[in-house]
Specification:
6-stranded antiparallel sheet, alpha+beta, single chain
């Protein structure tokens, strides 16, 4: 399961990348506990979507960020937590 600690880098990067994304949605990456996460952040009418894969096993994740909450599926498992929890995890 992809915990809030693992995707903290992706959630923390939302604020920094949302302004830069424009029409293009560049892929970003971070490494945590030997895994590399490659993802894109897209703005939608209802919030933001973080989607990508964890390597080397190519496990997919797709998360929605809306109203300060992150939820979605990672590796077939449901995940849900507050954005602020992830930001706190990223700073630890």
């Amino acid at each position: 399961m992809l915990s809030k600690f693992i995707i903290a880098g992706a959630v923390s990067a939302i604020a920094a990348t949302a302004a830069q994304a424009g029409d293009a949605t560049p892929k970003q990456r971070f490494t945590h506990e030997g895994y590399t996460y490659v993802y894109q952040v897209k703005d939608t009418k209802t919030g933001q979507v973080i989607s990508g894969r964890r390597y080397p096993d190519a496990v997919a994740f797709n998360l929605a960020v809306k109203n300060g909450k992150v939820s979605g599926i990672s590796g077939g498992q449901s995940v849900a937590f507050n954005v602020e929890e992830a930001r706190g995890a990223a700073s630890e």
